[in-house]
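Title: Prediction job returns without error message
Component: structure pipeline
Severity: low
Priority: P3
Assignee: unassigned

Description:
Job completed but the reporter wants confirmation the result is attached to the right record. Sequence as submitted:
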Amino acid sequence: MWKRILTALVLVAMALGAGCLGGLLHPPVVPPAIVPVEGAALDQAPVYTFPFEDGEETIRVSPDPAVYAGAKAADRQLYLSEDLSEEEWIPIYYLAFINDPHQEPFYEDLLAALREIRDREALGDDHYLELIAAFVQSIPYRTDASVAEPKFPIETYVDAEGDCDDKSLLLAGLLAREGYGVALLYFGEEGHMAVGVKSAGCRYRNTPYAYIEATNTSYVGIPPAELADGTLLSSDPLVIPAGYGNRSYTACGEVETIEHALSASRNHLEEFEVELTARTRELEEERVSLEALDVRIAALSRSGEIRECNRLVTEYNQRAREYNDAIDAYNTLLAESEAAVDLHNHLITHAHDRSGSYLRARAYLAG
């Protein structure tokens, strides 16, 4: 969940001079801003190691302590000298956190580290976007009780933690500076924030953006069924453009295959559960019945009733063959169920590897 937005309406007193306009001219909006604290120091810069594709990557940069300290000490209130609608002042507020000019060297250093990975691995635009998303998603999700408002991106990086708006601001800031068309998705009713990236497919609701959940490792273009606390995203978000670049996400076809495989595996598991439960009950009933029949055959044999004994032996052998065939069929169904479980779990736990997940999803759907 996000933190609250603080606003204040500043009352401006205007003094009239002789024949001219006197007094103070206040800007209509004064958003939060960083004032660097010279002489500040960082105890230790964080080092991030996170999964990406079929391996791990490491990011380490050392942000300017003066800027970080200034962000920590910043007045996070939005001051208004005129009445603005939420659709007007909410974008001003959040974009101020992303675009404070004192953070540009931090963005440059962090993006230099990400570009090194991009160039080394020869990543295209889609994979590079996924790399940036995987990095931000790997930052632990946590709400800082000592901070009632959003963090500046430099804080989220140095603190090595953040909630939905903190991490979304960092992700949107990075993507915007790498030339992607990107926006913040502000869910006022649900108290949530995510990121959208321009996309030709897998668009979220009535927006031109694919959904990116910043709070945990997840696929670009697949919104969560529900948030961690069970909240459902049912409202249309306020879209806050944060970057107008031409780069967009074009891997939606593969993402849709992954989403289809996730849905199919869930449906199959529900069907398997019902069928396996019924077959387990039937097999147990038949096992008990066969054991009772075996006891009866033994009793007939001891009493010398050979004809009836032989008749029941024939029946027993036929039923035993059918029982064993049913066991084989059960085990085949169980193996199919386990394959669906393995596929589903792999896709859920490997959202950092869209290409690998796509290959497994495609193979599963092909049967």
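Comment from assignee: result matches the submitted record. The two ends are 40 Å apart (CA to CA).
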